[in-house]
Amino acid sequence: MTWDWGAVRDFMPHFWDGLLVTLQALALGSLISFALGLVWALLMQTPGLPHARTNSRGWYPLVRWPVGIVTEFIRDTPLLVQLFFLFYVLPEWGLTFSALTTGVVAIGLHYSTYTMQVYRAGIEAVPTGQWEAATALSLPPTRTWTAVILPQAIRRVVPALGNYVIAILKDTPVLMAITVLDMLGEARLFSQQHFQFTEPLTVIGVAFVLISYPASLLLRALERRLVR
Amino acid sequence: MSADTPLVKEPDAQAGPAATAGELIRFDRVTKRFGDHTVLDRLDFSVDAGKHVTLIGPSGSGKTTILRLLMTLAEPDEGTITVAGQQLFPAGEKQIREIRKNIGMVFQQFNLFPNMKVLRNITEAPVTVLGLSKDEAEQRARELLDLVGLSDHLDKYPGQLSGGQQQRVAIARALAMRPQVLLLDEVTSALDPELVAGVLDVLRDIARTTDITMLCVTHEMNFARDISDEVLMFDSGRVIEAGSPEKIFSTPEHTRTREFLSAVL
């Protein structure tokens, strides 16, 4: 086995294309998972003071039940299966999206069922006294959530959410399975055309490290600032 | 909260106590249980507007529960509670909100909002609940911070203040709503001993200079003697003795009161 710098040079244009796709999938997938996860987490909450909350009153169970079942289902099935489902089954129902869009949605949806757990933990970690102070000041429920509870909850969960960004980054190669040419997709295509596997795979391996290691350093710095 | 909310709810506030001839708060056979434990046992008592009432008694005798019921942080199992002639339980969400606006509470653990600076801790509710403009609310907050001696700290986060300072901010925050009733729940219990005096001085000041009705759960007997019009001695969820501070502290009648006082004084 010899290392061929020429192959690296030939691969680089394809690499940049793949990197762009990977970063797009990462950014959009993360954003969807963060936003959707928060929506799930809030739908699973019952309003009111934590100690006065009941699960059985009003219309809340009607929301909690379906959300709980759907998110549990998504969390318990593999991302790859979901990806195939969205890519091959949805068009049969007349819903056609580009491969990248489908991939981004699948990643965002899949990881939203994890981030919702993170948000839930963050919300529950806000001391009861904060709810009580908000009640004592007559703050309306919406304001209590937006001004008091969520800012404190989200601050607590930023590091945990950040870990999912890195997890999502490492899961982006599954998009190759639905014809998206991410970094791995480009590397495989190049390898098959030139019968050179070592160089392209090494290049993208290094690229993954170069993205995720600084990201984790950034996270640790953020953690030090946010979690007091 | 929208524009139809009056800036300050004075008319409402005056109609209540006037209609009930000075009586502002009434507990009627109120029972509260936690599991098998009966915290309040068919409790009756009332507080007249403007009075300072101190609740004393051993831990677990239900004093804090009374404040929590008034603040609607808990619900009674039986009995009725009325504030300014309006019944608290059961009451519609809207009515509860109206009653709540007349009641302020200061907690043992301060419960300031750590994500907001001192000034915004105080202005948040007056702006969003009472509909004050930001300027009005800040003006009010500055006056109150002046009152509690923290004018230099309005730009800090609660985490940057000592416990005593945080508690004084919490007092200012409660007063910013201009409540008729102020509930004080062991407000010095979580403080280092050297910080207690500063907080109590502020409260003495408020008791002397305002006509706010105060319900105070405390273990600071000297403070209770100074500010109280009436002292209620609790034991096992009932008031076993009530009277002026002179009477309760100097010539208590009930054996349990004497035992309790000799233990804490």
UniProtKB/TrEMBL annotation, chain A:
<keyword id="KW-0812">Transmembrane</keyword>
<keyword id="KW-0029">Amino-acid transport</keyword>
<feature type="transmembrane region" description="Helical">
    <location>
        <begin position="20"/>
        <end position="44"/>
    </location>
</feature>
<feature type="transmembrane region" description="Helical">
    <location>
        <begin position="161"/>
        <end position="181"/>
    </location>
</feature>
<dbReference type="InterPro" id="IPR035906">
    <property type="entry name" value="MetI-like_sf"/>
</dbReference>
<feature type="transmembrane region" description="Helical">
    <location>
        <begin position="201"/>
        <end position="222"/>
    </location>
</feature>
<dbReference type="InterPro" id="IPR043429">
    <property type="entry name" value="ArtM/GltK/GlnP/TcyL/YhdX-like"/>
</dbReference>
<dbReference type="GO" id="GO:0022857">
    <property type="term" value="F:transmembrane transporter activity"/>
</dbReference>
<keyword id="KW-0813">Transport</keyword>
<keyword id="KW-1133">Transmembrane helix</keyword>
<dbReference type="GO" id="GO:0006865">
    <property type="term" value="P:amino acid transport"/>
</dbReference>
<dbReference type="Pfam" id="PF00528">
    <property type="entry name" value="BPD_transp_1"/>
</dbReference>
<comment type="similarity">
    <text>Belongs to the binding-protein-dependent transport system permease family.</text>
</comment>
<keyword id="KW-1003">Cell membrane</keyword>
<dbReference type="GO" id="GO:0043190">
    <property type="term" value="C:ATP-binding cassette (ABC) transporter complex"/>
</dbReference>
<feature type="transmembrane region" description="Helical">
    <location>
        <begin position="93"/>
        <end position="111"/>
    </location>
</feature>
<protein>
    <submittedName>
        <fullName>Ectoine/hydroxyectoine ABC transporter permease subunit EhuD</fullName>
    </submittedName>
</protein>
<dbReference type="InterPro" id="IPR014341">
    <property type="entry name" value="Ectoine_EhuD"/>
</dbReference>
<feature type="domain" description="ABC transmembrane type-1">
    <location>
        <begin position="19"/>
        <end position="219"/>
    </location>
</feature>
<dbReference type="InterPro" id="IPR000515">
    <property type="entry name" value="MetI-like"/>
</dbReference>
<dbReference type="InterPro" id="IPR010065">
    <property type="entry name" value="AA_ABC_transptr_permease_3TM"/>
</dbReference>
<keyword id="KW-0472">Membrane</keyword>
TrEMBL record, chain B:
<keyword id="KW-1003">Cell membrane</keyword>
<dbReference type="GO" id="GO:0015424">
    <property type="term" value="F:ABC-type amino acid transporter activity"/>
</dbReference>
<comment type="similarity">
    <text>Belongs to the ABC transporter superfamily.</text>
</comment>
<dbReference type="GO" id="GO:0005886">
    <property type="term" value="C:plasma membrane"/>
</dbReference>
<dbReference type="GO" id="GO:0005524">
    <property type="term" value="F:ATP binding"/>
</dbReference>
<protein>
    <submittedName>
        <fullName>Ectoine/hydroxyectoine ABC transporter ATP-binding protein EhuA</fullName>
    </submittedName>
</protein>
<keyword id="KW-0547">Nucleotide-binding</keyword>
<dbReference type="InterPro" id="IPR017871">
    <property type="entry name" value="ABC_transporter-like_CS"/>
</dbReference>
<dbReference type="GO" id="GO:0016887">
    <property type="term" value="F:ATP hydrolysis activity"/>
</dbReference>
<keyword id="KW-0472">Membrane</keyword>
<dbReference type="InterPro" id="IPR050086">
    <property type="entry name" value="MetN_ABC_transporter-like"/>
</dbReference>
<dbReference type="InterPro" id="IPR030679">
    <property type="entry name" value="ABC_ATPase_HisP-typ"/>
</dbReference>
<dbReference type="InterPro" id="IPR027417">
    <property type="entry name" value="P-loop_NTPase"/>
</dbReference>
<keyword id="KW-0067">ATP-binding</keyword>
<dbReference type="InterPro" id="IPR003439">
    <property type="entry name" value="ABC_transporter-like_ATP-bd"/>
</dbReference>
<feature type="domain" description="ABC transporter">
    <location>
        <begin position="25"/>
        <end position="261"/>
    </location>
</feature>
<keyword id="KW-0029">Amino-acid transport</keyword>
<dbReference type="Pfam" id="PF00005">
    <property type="entry name" value="ABC_tran"/>
</dbReference>
<dbReference type="InterPro" id="IPR014343">
    <property type="entry name" value="Ectoine_EhuA"/>
</dbReference>
<keyword id="KW-0813">Transport</keyword>
<dbReference type="InterPro" id="IPR003593">
    <property type="entry name" value="AAA+_ATPase"/>
</dbReference>
